[in-house]
Amino acid sequence: MAFVAVYLIWGSTYLAIRFTIETLPPFLSAGLRFFVAGMVLYIFGRFKNKEPAPCRNHWISAFIAGGFLLLGGNGCVVWAEHFVPSGLAALFIAIVPLWMVLLEWGWHQTQRPSNGVFLGIGIGFVGVWLLMAPDLWHLGAHSIHLGGALLLLLASISWSIGSIYTRRADLPKSPFLSTAMQMIGGGVLLIVVGLAQREYAHFHITHFSAKSIMALLYLVLFGSLLAFTAYLWLLKNAGVARTSTYAFVNPVVAIFLGWVFAGEKLDLQTAIAAFFVLVAVIFITLYHKEPGKKAFS
Fold first, then answer.
1. pLDDT value at residue 294
2. What do you get for the CA distance between the two ends of the chain, in Å?
3. pLDDT by residue (tens digit) across 132-173?
4. Taking the domains of the chain in order of start, what are their residue ranges?
5. Which of 211, 221, 227 is nearest to 262 (CA)?
6. Which residues of 204-229 are buried (b: 16+ CB within 10 A; e: fewer)?
7. 193 Cβ contact partners less than 8 Å away, ≥ 6 residues apart
8. Considering the entire predicted model, what is its pTM?
9. d(CA 245, CA 41)
């Protein structure tokens, strides 16, 4: 059930982000989303489950993880969705497993990835190139905002670093406290960036649409409290490769919802790129061998 929640809900968050930032300030709304969700989980963990208070090192680790996962990862996605469709944003984030395998190999000196994994990585980068390239074969009016694409690449790398860091970071053993503290840390950092950019100076509460407010509530309740908590739990208990399989479904769900509810179109070159990216993720997931586990052969 945890996998299903991550798959379906996370796929829908890209459209919810698009609706949120139509009238709400991007970094402040993202920061509020994670800070509120984090405080709810923290209070539940500390006072309902009677978890011990975290130490100073726990908070430092939580802010580092939150910085990579939420400020660098989610923050760049939120910013990029001003320039690129929500379905395309999800497609870029689908390459996270590529970075995670490479970073684990280089960072933690794990076993060299198999030839199948390297093949998947190569296919994935072809897909990324197709996404960022101009209309190569005149298959349709394929174009992408370069700045938005680079932000999404940065988001995928930052999210990958944060995901690997959390597996070995000095964090509370309680999944409630660990997740809560990372969301609080990331939320605070996002709010600081929003304040530094003076987002509050350009928005007024009377300009906020009901659709944006409902989308933000959806992100707090489902995108953060449910899906993000499930994701971090899976990282600890199911490993990187299995957890990364959410990348199979995320772009498909996001592209479909963007087409149905936001009128986003998928040109043929993007469809071909999506095929390459998804095939790459399948190769990496099937052929990646984690320590102590047998890879597909």
1. 37
2. 27
3. 887 776 656 677 888 999 999 999 999 999 988 998 899 998
4. 2-112+145-265
5. 211
6. eeeebeeebbebbebbbbbbbbbbbb
7. 27, 31, 71, 75
8. 0.87
9. 26
